[in-house]
Amino acid sequence: MRTDGLHLSDEAAKNIQSFIVEKYGPEFAAKSARKYFKKVKNAREAHEAIRPTDITRVPSTLVRMLDEDALKLYTLICSQSMACQMESSVTDQLQCDVGNPDQSIIFRFTCSRMAFLGFKAVYEDAETVRIRNNDDDDDSHRSDVFDTFE
Predict the structure, then answer these.
(1) Which distant-in-sequence residues (6+ apart) come within 8 Å of 22 by Cβ?
(2) What confidence tens digit (pLDDT) does each residue in 85-99 have?
(3) Among 17, 49, 112, 146, which is most buried by a count of CB atoms within 10 Å?
(4) Which of 98, 96, 116, 117 has its CA nearest to residue 106?
């Protein structure tokens, strides 16, 4: 069995895009099906990428049927299959240089925030969000900083 294929069938890409629109909204789906090809000249694209046979079968529905390792693998395959057909994420970045008048000392402040999750929405599960909210309270502070400078 070969596992190095990069492309999805037209039907699979269409199904994935419709599922993305249903689950995340139309702004998250790529405008058209994305096609990935090998950069090698004369490469045969006979093998399709590994993907779920039914994209609507999300990992949470298989918790009781798969062991832990199989569930992790299926989650990775499902996430990658969806992410490759989604829009790119957009990150706002802010950089501020503060220094003395002769510029012998300069302090640089950088900050970034996610303006649009795009494909990263696939990787945002409830537990990750909960852990991040408990451990990192700086997100609200970052938004305040951006709002001040905009």
Answers:
(1) none
(2) 999 999 999 999 999
(3) 17
(4) 98
